[in-house]
Design goal:
Structural class: alpha/beta
Largest sheet: 8 strands, mixed
Distance between the termini: 28 Å
Strand content: 15-25%
Shape: globular
Number of strands: 16
Helix content: 25-40%
Strand order of the largest sheet: 4-1-5-6-7-8-11-12
Number of helices: 9
Amino acid sequence: MSNPESLSRVVVFGLGGTIAMTPTGSGGVAPSLTAEQLVAAVPGLNDAGVKLDVVQFRQIPGASLNFADIAALHEAVAAELPHAAGVVVTQGTDTIEETSYLLDLLHDRPEPMVVTGAMRNPSMAGADGPANLLAAVQVAASPQARKLGCVVVFADEIHAARRVRKTHTTRCAAFESPNGGPLGWVSEGHVHLANRLSFRTFLPAPPTDDVRVALVPTALGDDGTVLDAVADHVDGIVVAAVGAGHVPAHLAPRLGAIAEHKPVILASRTCGGTVLAETYGFPGSERDLLARGLISAGFLDPVKARLLLHTLICNQADRDTIASAFAVASGHADPALWPWAVQMSGADNA
């Protein structure tokens, strides 16, 4: 029998979500199971060689989480990490691709932070929560996962937070990484890495709910009604452009005028590949929009570009700093150009 004092310590934070949902009296399911109950229901967890501590942090659906919740979660996690091998966060899958990226931007330690959840609630046949939670704990406890930042573990795959997307409404393998694929996987309780990110980015101040960044989609026949409705009421805009970074020609002057006063980020709604820089030259093309002052999101998809811009504004970044940060985070500039020093807390223990 293992000595409890020699076991790796992992802290599980429960936020609610499908993984914790049970049927309600009025129909449907809602979060009700505590983190302790989730951990107790995982077969094989007692044999994982891990000492678990559990924190019931929130009990809400993923769609109801906000910036204040994630900032508070990061603070609570930061207090535990100096005394743990890693942490696991269980939450609703609706916003995992967003919360994990926010946590990754704030996570400045080598210990792994692992986010997971479930696509099938515990009352359904083939509920995937227990398997996902077991794999997440195994990743959080693994020395192999150190310095990966925040990752998402789902269906035994390990995804980088800045790459991962939820790509299906119901299937258990709903999470994919279009730009680069998963970092690795869990097999027979062991972590296997196929690749690592070449750099990480950190921001010193967490996001707050008093900054507003609009995500404005572009579509066939778009007349600019949505853009005009939000432009004067937000601190920044992310345009989910079509294709490689294109909008209808008549929207280009409006976007350029807005970019003179506040940051406007150009992302692609395809969520795969990068916004181009010099291929197309028609009005409303990426060349036209970048020349008008829009900032490229590069490989970042629109929802992650929104989160990065929001957090940069909360860190008092001016336009030049925002442009530099996006150039690095989007994969198009030397990581040494990141505006904040990249130095991990606790790195001497890595």
